[in-house]
Amino acid sequence: MSHIKLALLLGITVALGPLALDAYLPAFPSIADGLGIPHSDVGLTLSAYVAALGLAQLVGGPLSDRYGRQPILLGGLAIFAAAAVMVSLANTLSDMVIWRVVQGIGGAFCAVSVPAIVRDQVSGQDAARLFGLIGLIMFVAPAAAPSLGALMLVAGDWHAIFLLLAGYAVFLAMALKFALFPALQPRPPATTPVRTLVTNYMLVLKHSTTMRFVGIQVLCFSTMLLFITHSSFIYQEWFGLSNGMFSILFAANIVLMAVLNLINRPLLRRFSSVVLLRTQVIMQCVALIALVTVVLLKGPFWLITACIVAAIGCQGGIIPNNMANALEFFPHLGGTAAAMLGASQFTIAGGISALSSIFAGHALLPIVVSMLACSVGAVILAMGAPRAVARETASPA
User: Fold this and answer.
1) Which residues form the Major facilitator superfamily (MFS) profile domain (predicted)?
2) Over the stretch 33-63, which tens digit does the pLDDT of each residue have?
């Protein structure tokens, strides 16, 4: 299968995650009014989804190594679709949180399968380029998601957003079943006993270089998730913007992500992915230092927005380079390594996001300071990363 076709199919699959996170952001006020709860409480449905999306990958990754990518990925899509329908029927916050957790489990089985499939097919700099191409295709989803959600609010109400997500999951299942899996290079049959699936995590945990990249992923993703969780509050409550303006400004983050992703691809021919990763992590930190400074000085709205866009946009180069490096050492345990990466990323970031919802209150400064703190941690880890990733590999137990 060509890299373009593979990237297209995997890109639209990865897009399921951003759609489930971002499509209902403009509906937060409507959901709060409909359920009779404070606006900030709606953020718990996002944190619950993200936490489940992380923890369930610890199960889905080893299972995909043992039983294959197809049954785990298609099973995850079925769970996701059914849970999305139930979320649309929820009439209390507790019901919505429960079904978002189930939806996160289905999403986790999908999320962990995509990087594992990439690692099955390519490695090294080629993997970084493929992750970049997948990311470029995937960026359409988060850019369009808030606008799509706003359109659903005009046409109906917030329930329609989740029915749309269910329909998209069904479409993905059909596309992958008939267009992706028949064309993939077959993996050697797995012989790992089920009882050793958990112990294989020790290979990942003991690999210090891999865990450094996992830490970078966790902290950079936490920076972005803090913004996503509070983006509706920042733009719609703090600055009083309309749904339409919120969608435009949210899309601006994705546009810069795509631009930096495009720039990153040719740079991979001249520089190692580790060097590019370190540079872009530092760029993100500089943008967040500027953001905190502007907020402290009560600077203008346009300058705050510019700093946010610059910081979040850096994810376009950080994600593909970091994922390729994190998975490089585990060609035979792609699902397990991807699960460790995804579980750490979503679970820890989800916890940070939930704590920020509880303690940040109705203030902008604690939110941006939290984003900067995560970014500083990522810079510290990135500065200690090797200049180029060695080609040693780890084998299953």
Assistant:
1) 6-389
2) 888 888 778 888 988 888 888 889 888 888 8
